[in-house]
Structures are given as structure tokens and as C-alpha cells.
Write a structure and sequence with these properties.
By secondary structure, the chain is of the alpha+beta class. The chain contains ten helices and 13 strands.
Amino acid sequence: MTAEVACYVKKDLGSRPLVQQIAERNQVPDEYIHKTEFDKAIDSPKLWKDTLLIDFSLLSSSSPTTAQAELTKLRFALSNWGCFMLVNHGIDKKLLDDVIGVTKEFFELPIEEKMKCSTNDILQGYDTDAVCQGKLTTNWNDRLFLAVYPHKEVNLLFWPEQPRDFREVTRKFSDELAATTEVLYKAMARCLDAEEDCFLKHGQKGLTLARFTFYPKCPRSERVLGSRPHLDGSLATIVLADEEGLHIENDNQWVKVPVIPGALFFNCGDFAQVLSNGIFKSTLHRVVTNSAKDRTSVAAFFTLEGNHEVGPLDTFVTKDRPALYKSFAPIDYMMKMHENDVPGRNALDFMLL
């Protein structure tokens, strides 16, 4: 049984304008401005060309030595960083370009057309990110959230009718991602010497939610974030973007994530950290704004079945490594994630033993 889309009702924001509308005025309202400048991020080209570069084709190589070497890299990346850049994944670059293309076309549509996709649910439809920010400093982006896979759980009522090829491109992309994550989940298990389906059997029961996001250029980029530092409420997340702006945090240092043509960025979400009993690391990340460039991205969040309790898998709980987390239903985690009375606190904190 697959999960249904949980409904998280938006806060009552009245007639809050969309970020695209605000950006046209070249002024930034106070609720978007942080009190201090942000910690700087460093460039680390070697990191993304070696340590955090995973070759998808090698994970299933017919050569045991080659496959094991890539699995060792995968374990190091996910245990120490929680993320990597994925290359040679087999998804046609033209399709990736089309995904970004139809996303840009959607955000270029007249506001009246885009608002046809507006709903009262945080995780479905079109709106500004302000709908779930509460009292926190607001993120500088507008987004379209859609459940995209499995297809039988998709409600096309929320999907744009324009651009004309949006639905076809999104459906193809979601099919490709489903096949890709199946291989990755198996590789994640193999790199820990666990049963191959231990992550897959959980991942297959969840929905894939896609977030199509537009970050307009911002005249106060030194004080405005496209997305505040956060962890993902997913088993895994895959990101495709047209411009840099994504940063990850490791050992109190922010690191820039490059845009590599044809590559996909993969990061573990909180549920990967829980299932692996803390062996894999959920990646803290943020998105900065740019005073000269817009940024468009598509993030696919691979979730778990909402009402089925999860906790550390038995294979990762030992005498020397006792369970770190209690069992919980993902839907309860998501409720904590969208509460705004605990700013700065991660929902996963509530699941610690």
C-alpha cells in the first residue's frame, strides 16, 4: 500500500504577495531580511571531482573490484557528508534540460495562469514559500509542489496545463528518478553490508514529491536567503538546478555545491539517518540568493508511507551501537516539521531516545 498525500493546511497569510511580484519592485520587505550577514561558503572543486562524485554506472559494475571501490566511496560520502554528485546515471541530458525549461516557462506565465494551481495545502500546488514560514524570516522563493510518483497516486487537478509539455516532461522525469533511486537504495544497503532491499522496501511505499522552485535575483542578497538552513523530511532528495546557490554544511563550514552539466545532486534526508541508526548523515543545507541572477531548481523528495511506523533497522542496532531513535510514524514527524513554535529546532530532535 502506498502513502496518500498528507494535507498540511497553510497559515492564514491574507494577501501576501508572491516573491516574483516583490522582486519586480527591486525592494525587499523586512520579513525577508536577516539581522546579520551569513557565514561564507567556500569553494571546494576537488571535493566534487573526487570524494563526493559517485559514478552511477560503476555501482553495478560487472567487475567486483570496481563496484566495491565505488560502494566504498558511497559509504564514505553518505556517512561523512550525507550527499554526493551523481554522474553517468543514464538519464538523457535533453530530458534534464527540458525539466528546467518547462519549470522556467511555468514561472514566466501570467500570475492568473499560475494561480490556477494554487491550493490550501503546503505540499500541493503553487504559492510563495511564505505559506509555511510562520514567525521565521521568510524564504525568498516561489514554488510549485506536486506529488509526481507513483502515477496512480497523482492528482492532475494540481498540475499545470501550461506549459503544454509540462506534464509529459515531468512524468518522464519521475519515471527515470524512480528507476535511479531503486539502484541507489540497493547500493546504499550493499555499502553497509546489509540486505539489499532494506532501504528499498521502505522507499517503494512512499510518494515522490517534486518541488519546482524559482529564486528571483535579490538586491539584498547578503541578508536574504532563498531557503534557510534545513534538513529534508525525506529518505532521499535529488536536485537539478540551472545555477549555483545551494550550500551544504559540514563541521561548521558551509561548502558551495557546483552545477555540473548532466549531473544530479543527491542528499540523504532525515529518514535515511533514522533507518541507518545514524550511520548515514542527513545533510544540512541552504540556498543563497544572487543580486544578478535568478535561479531555477527542481527537487524530488522521496518520502515514506505516512502512517507506517519506522525506526532504526535491526541490522544497524548492536550492543556497541544501540538505537538512537524511537519508532514513529512519518506523518507525526511531518507535523513537527511544519510547526513554527520551535524555530531552529529540527523535527528529528523529537524522535531521539
